[in-house]
Design a protein that fits this description.
Chains A, B: Belongs to the DinB family. Chains A, B: GO terms for molecular function: metal ion binding. Chains A, B: This is DinB family protein. Chains A, B: Keywords: Metal-binding. Chains A, B: InterPro entries: DinB, DinB/YfiT-like. The structure is a homodimer of 161-residue chains. Chain A is mainly α. Chain A contains six helices and two strands. Chain A has a two-stranded antiparallel sheet with strand order 1-2. In chain A, α2 packs antiparallel against α4 and α3 packs antiparallel against α6. Chain A has one domain: Up-down Bundle (Four Helix Bundle (Hemerythrin (Met), subunit A)). In chain A, β1 and β2 form a beta hairpin. At the A-B interface, α1, α2, β2 and α6 of A face α1, α2, β2 and α6 of B.
Chain lengths: 161, 161
């Protein structure tokens, strides 16, 4: 309800992005919270990221992509730490989302429109980078939802903001 | 490469959205293509959508959300048809993505900024609805990637546009 009210007041693309981004942070934390601590190493197949690794990957990729393509900065936490427990995973995710949000808030409209080189040499605007980072997290939350099902856990309901 | 070049020429949020949306259509079709026809009924747990149902769900939800929240229209195909085979699933997905794209292209900036009521009574702009529809598909492709892994199939590489 709070997020709906915020959304109603969003006037620009950037405000809309930040409102959604904040919601996606909460959803990611809920998904991690839903997994029992003793099942964090669950993986659906050999050679595929475990649930724990995937949570670390979302947090690490948020920071890496924002630092590399939007603006350099310090997330205030070592995102490379191995074998984070559930509380650490949730904190890393929160810090990584806040790190991205703070960078996004600091960008001017001109900086958002400016093109930067991303993976594979593609030139995209920083607005597109914001959406790339968001899309990456959504994708892996989609993976993690199935990991929860396979671990006998009813996942938190899908949400898009 | 073609999509990178298109991206480089995108000047507005809406052009950027449409370039991404078109890429997401191709990625969805690739994911369906990767699943063997005899494994379309794979489901990871009781009561959870099968791979076939999830592909139908993405196509159906694209059409439903665009019709309900963006602008009414006819997708030119029965999205409710049960037990589509792989060729039909791919066609339904393509038609549903094209349906959404055509509606999005037809919306003016004023219409995109206008707020509409969505699930749960939230008021959001049509721009936000576009992102909601995109997010829904990304989420379920994330699910389907794990279905592929569990079926012994190496999934197509993640992409965000």
């Amino acid at each position: 309800m709070v997020s709906s009210m915020y959304m109603a007041n969003a006037q620009t693309n950037q405000e809309e992005f930040l409102a959604k981004w904040n919601g996606m942070k909460g959803y990611t934390v809920e998904i991690i919270e839903a997994m029992p601590e003793d099942k964090l190493d669950f993986t659906p197949a050999e050679g595929v990221m475990s649930f724990r690794e995937m949570a670390m990957h979302i947090a690490g990729a948020n920071v890496m992509m924002a630092s590399k393509f939007l603006k350099e900065g310090d997330p205030g936490m070592d995102m490379e730490k191995k074998d984070m427990n559930k509380a650490e995973l949730k904190m890393a995710v929160e810090k990584s989302f806040d790190f991205v949000a703070n960078i996004c808030k600091s960008l001017t409209e001109d900086e958002l429109a400016e093109e930067v080189e991303v993976f594979g040499g593609a030139m995209v605007s920083r607005r597109q980078v914001e959406n790339l980072i968001d899309t990456h997290g959504i994708h892996h939350r989609g993976n993690m939802i199935v990991y929860l099902r396979l671990s006998g856990v009813e996942p938190p309901a899908f949400r898009a903001w």
